[in-house]
Amino acid sequence: MKTRPMTMLLVMLAGWINQHQQDVIENLKTENAILKEKLGKKRIILSDEQRRKLALLAKKIGRKALDEICGVFSPETLLKWHRMLIARKYDGSKCRKYGRPQISDELRKLIIKLAKQNRGWGYPRIEGQLKYLGFKVSHSTIANILKKEGLEPQPGRTKKTTWAEFIKVHWKSLSAIDFCHTEIYTIKGLTRYMVLLLLIILPGK
C-alpha cells in the first residue's frame, strides 16, 4: 500500500509541531526551576487577577501536568486558588443583609408622635399599635428611638401627663353622657321626666 505525499507531509508536520511544543515546555520548566531556586523562600505577592489567571490554567491542564511543570507555585496552591474562585462565585454573602432593616424617617416620626400623644403607653403598647397599623418594629428599636429623642419610658412619662395634654390628645374622641330629671306639669298633674344627655365634641362643629 502506497502512502500519499499529502499524508506523509501531515505526519511530518504533526511530528514537528509536537516536538516544538515539547521543546517549549522543557524551556518553561527550566526557567521555572531556575526562578524557583533564585527565589528560595521569598514570598511572591500576586494580585487577585493574577491568581485568577493561574488558577484557571492550572485547572485546565490538571494535577498530573502541574507536577511535571515544577512551577513556582505548588499544584496544591494553584488548585486551592481555583476552589476559592469557584466558592467566591457562588457566595451570596455580598447580597446578604445583616441586622434589622433600616427604620424609615416617616416611621420614626410616627413612633415619636405616638409616644408624645400617649404618655401612658409603654414600649409594648406602642409596638402593638404599630403592629395594628401594619408596621413590624421590635421593642428594643422603639426604646432606642425614644431614648435618642429624650423621651422617658412609661411609667415615667405617665406621671407628667396633664389634663390639658390628655384632652388635647383625645379631643376628637371625647364624649360625655349623663342623666338628669325635671318636673313638668301635665294634664295628669306634676310629672317627673328623666332626660339622657349625650355630648359629643367634634372639632369645628
The topology string of helices and strands comes to HHHHHHHEE
**Helix fraction?**
40-55%
Please give the domain count.
2
Largest sheet: 2 strands, antiparallel
Radius of gyration: 43 Å
Q: Could you walk me through the main structural features you see in this protein, from its secondary elements to its overall organization?
A:
The chain has two domains: 5-89, no CATH class; 105-200, no CATH class. It contains seven helices and two strands, in the order αααααααββ. A hairpin with a 2-residue loop joins strand 1 and strand 2. Helix 2 (48-69) packs across helix 3 and helix 5 crosses helix 6. A two-stranded antiparallel sheet has the order 1-2. The model has no long low-confidence stretch (mean pLDDT 73). The chain has 205 residues and is mainly α.
Helix and strand layout, with pairings?
Elements: H1 5-39, H2 48-69, H3 75-89, H4 105-117, H5 123-132, H6 139-148, H7 163-169, E1 175-186, E2 189-200
Antiparallel strand pairs: 1-2
Helix pairs in contact: 2-3, 5-6
Quick rundown:
With 205 residues, the protein is mainly α. It is built from 7 helices and 2 strands, in the order αααααααββ. The chain folds into 2 domains: 85 residues, no CATH class; 96 residues, no CATH class.
